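Hi support team,

I'm filing this because I wasn't sure whether my run with flavin-adenine dinucleotide finished correctly. The job status page said complete, but I'd like someone to confirm that the output block is well-formed before I use it downstream. Pasting the exact inputs I used:
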Amino acid sequence: MQYYEPNFVDEALVLLDRFAPGARVLAGGTLLGPQLRSDPRGADTIVNIKRIPDLSDVTLDGDRLTIGAVVTARELAEHQLVRRHAPLLAEAAASLGARQLRSVATIGGNLCSGHPAADLSAALLASDAFCLVSNIHEGPREIALEAFLRPRSHAMESGELLTGIALPGSTAGAAYAKMQTRRAFEMALVAVAVRFAGSQDGTIEDARIALAGAAPTPLRAARAEAALNGRPPSPKTFAAAARAAAEHDAKPYTDRRASAEYRRHLVFVLTERALAEAQLR
Ligand SMILES: Cc1cc2nc3c(=O)[nH]c(=O)nc-3n(C[C@H](O)[C@H](O)[C@H](O)COP(=O)(O)OP(=O)(O)OC[C@H]3O[C@@H](n4cnc5c(N)ncnc54)[C@H](O)[C@@H]3O)c2cc1C
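And here is everything the job wrote out:
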């Protein structure tokens, strides 16, 4: 197995192109490390992107927040720009795994893993985020996160690199609710990210609800969002939206950790809870 540590994005893109399709990107390594230990034939070339300075920036341009692909969950949880302009993302990042894990797990790895219960993916879906993807032939192009996520995978071609994530800053009320059995060691069973603003006439507008652990990929809960928009924020409205999320949007699955039926129940409970919390913020 060959191992490279490029210092520039262009250098990484040349390596990924030259060694495709056997090259794998290494970021925090919390998922790739165990995968390669159990099956070393899963890659013939490793391109470690952690030492590329351009990929670890967090910048604000107007109201657009851009986050480099190797920014860690801990940095997201603590960074003042993220806390102020994307509090939902900061909250989800603070809930990810244990402190040691948060210090190495990257935002790019979270999205590229395509894990159904990835915390940052859910928070970013509810934040209208875009993925910035580059290859050796073209500079960053934007892919809406919804189109980027695939079950246990992503929409990039071999030889491509996720260089960052961009999202509009938002101070709308937001909350992240999740259910897990062992906080430090396991992914959420189900997590729900919500964000909404109030309009001048006191009704809800621009509602965003994203579910993790409720379908083969994290997803936006379109029926639940429709049940909120244009209605006054109230326990009755929140219960109707939570029902829509559980009964129509969720496509829950059964695995060794929980049944589909239990996951559906969690979607209802957590959506209702997150909406009530978001209203108070
Ligand atoms: C004990 C434990 C607990 C965990 N708990 C949680 C949890 O609570 N919540 C949660 O969401 N996740 C959890 N995870 C999963 C994981 O740690 C996170 O999803 C993390 O963010 C993955 O990032 P990474 O940098 O470690 O990815 P890596 O392992 O480095 O990479 C993961 C995959 O993405 C690809 N990749 C990474 N970066 C890029 C890029 N920029 N461009 C192209 N491809 C890329 C890699 O090639 C690999 O296929 C847990 C994992 C463990 C082992």
